[in-house]
Write a structure and sequence with these properties.
about 90 residues; alpha+beta; Ribosomal Protein S8, Chain: A, domain 1; 2 helices; 3 strands; about 30% helix; about 15% strand
Length: about 90
């Protein structure tokens, strides 16, 4: 007997591997990119004041995304929050 070749139907669509997007553009990329850009221009002793109302996600999620991005870029920053703002500044 010859082996029976039975293929189950595909569950998902397919695409050519070179067409697969590379890199990760998460939900926080836009705000984190803006914060990093502004941090690069900050003089010592000055903090950014980001309105919490402008954040699409929670301040905790934005802080986590910012932490990942600054570590990857080798930057040292600190953050603080109150009921209205997320404060971000460069540390030495």
């Amino acid at each position: 007997m010859s082996p029976k070749t039975h293929h189950a139907p595909m569950n998902f669509k397919t695409m050519s591997q070179p067409e697969v997007p590379q890199g990760r553009n998460g939900k926080h990329k836009q705000i984190v990119t803006k914060i990093l850009s502004d941090l690069a221009q900050l003089p010592d002793g000055v903090a950014l004041k980001v309105p919490l109302a402008a954040l699409v996600e929670t301040k905790e999620k934005v802080r986590s995304a910012l932490n990942r991005a600054t570590r990857k870029a080798g930057r040292d920053v600190a953050t603080a929050t109150d009921a209205t703002f997320l404060y971000v500044w460069n540390t030495k």
